[in-house]
């Protein structure tokens, strides 16, 4: 018995009967020889961490566009906070931490520059539409490694695809990430809004705070404990009705006061216009696309999707630099 098989046996003996065991994975899009050390979901986690799209998250907007200050969240730090929260819940419920971590680390790989502003712009410009969860799957299936993809397991792909509110993952581990994503951004976006002077802790209505806590840390602790308490020993991941209603109200509060705040979001129209302008430019200058995307075009991939692939993969800084290179005249030095 090799190390991987020993770890798979440990999962079988220790994890909850409701956990997704590595040995029971439905496999990958392309069959591969198993690693002798790592179970499949650990291997997926490693592939995501070593991917270029994961590294680019460090320079993609979470909420505030190109904020001044070292302590505002980026899409990467959001991803790490989702992973930490999800792993805490999974460990307490004796579910598969490797699967949870892989889904959490990969769930936003397809996010655009400038956060949801960039997503809205590409969705408006592209006739095929654009959703970051679908783009995250496309990234791991097709775009990574210059068109080869990183060939993740079906369970990780399912969790990435279905991490949004309108969808439901097939595994409990995926359901944990789906909730952890919301818990994380409610926590850290509120923290960033306080740091940016958009809100004060006391602005949260008392009918919400009296249930989930009066500080960011208390709220995070409340939701984690509530999910663990209400999901332990069950074939589901759930919160109490009281907690679910409080989360709904807190999200509504955040949308009214942060996500649609004209001060916090005052630059988003500029970001959207920049993205649409780049989309139109590359649609008319296909020779400027990376070579591997050009190969995919020859293989029958729609040009509109490939332009979205290129722009969607950009960091905030690179998108701005490309716009300046194309449209802003340079000083003549003689």
Overview of the structural elements:
43% of the residues are buried. Helix 8 packs across helix 9 (172-195). This protein has 334 residues and is mainly α. The radius of gyration is 21 Å and the shape is flat. It is built from 16 helices and no strands.
Write the layout of secondary structure elements.
Elements (H helix, E strand, L loop, with lengths): L2 H12 L25 H10 L2 H5 L18 H18 L4 H10 L8 H11 L6 H16 L6 H8 L10 H24 L10 H7 L3 H16 L9 H19 L8 H17 L6 H8 L4 H11 L2 H12 L7
Helix pairs in contact: 2-5, 4-5, 4-9, 4-11, 5-8, 5-9, 6-13, 8-9, 9-11, 9-12, 10-12, 13-15, 13-16, 14-15
> What gyration radius follows from the Cα positions, in whole Å?
21 Å
SSE arrangement, N to C: HHHHHHHHHHHHHHHH
Count of runs of 4 or more consecutive helical residues: 16
Poorly predicted segments: none
* Average residue-wise pLDDT: 94
Q: Major beta sheet, specifics?
A: none
C-alpha end-to-end distance: 71 Å
Overall shape: it is: flat
The total beta strand count reads 0
- Content of β-strand: under 5%
| Class of secondary structure makeup | mainly alpha
Helical content (DSSP H or I, runs of 4+): 55-70%
């Amino acid at each position: 018995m090799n190390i991987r098989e020993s770890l798979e046996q440990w999962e079988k003996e220790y994890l909850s009967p409701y956990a997704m065991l590595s040995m029971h994975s439905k496999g990958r899009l392309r069959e591969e020889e198993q690693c002798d050390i790592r179970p499949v979901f650990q291997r997926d986690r490693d592939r995501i961490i070593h991917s270029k799209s994961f590294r680019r998250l460090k320079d993609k907007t979470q909420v505030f566009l190109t904020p001044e200050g070292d302590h505002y969240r980026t899409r990467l730090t959001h991803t790490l906070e989702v992973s930490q929260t999800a792993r805490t819940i999974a460990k307490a419920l004796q579910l598969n931490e490797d699967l949870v971590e892989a889904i959490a680390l990969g769930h936003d790989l397809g996010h655009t520059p400038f956060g949801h502003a960039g997503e809205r712009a590409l969705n408006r410009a592209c006739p095929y539409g654009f959703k970051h969860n679908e783009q995250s799957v496309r990234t791991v299936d097709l775009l990574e490694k210059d068109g080869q993809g990183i060939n993740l397991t079906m369970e990780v792909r399912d969790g990435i695809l279905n991490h949004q509110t309108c969808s439901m993952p097939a595994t409990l581990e995926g359901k944990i990430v789906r909730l952890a994503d919301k818990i994380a951004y409610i926590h850290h976006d509120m923290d960033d809004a306080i740091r940016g002077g958009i809100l004060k802790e006391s602005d949260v209505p008392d009918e919400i705070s009296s249930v989930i806590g009066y500080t960011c840390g208390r709220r995070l602790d409340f939701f984690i404990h509530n999910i663990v308490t209400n999901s332990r020993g069950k074939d589901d991941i759930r919160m109490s009705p009281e907690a679910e209603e409080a989360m709904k109200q807190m999200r509504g509060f955040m949308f009214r006061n942060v996500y649609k705040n004209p001060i916090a979001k005052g630059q988003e129209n500029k970001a959207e216009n920049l993205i649409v302008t780049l989309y139109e430019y590359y649609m008319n200058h296909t020779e400027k696309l990376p070579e591997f995307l050009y190969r995919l075009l020859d293989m029958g991939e729609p040009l509109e999707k490939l332009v979205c692939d290129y722009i969607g993969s950009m960091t905030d800084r690179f998108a701005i630099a490309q716009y300046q290179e194309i449209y802003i005249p340079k000083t003549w030095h003689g």
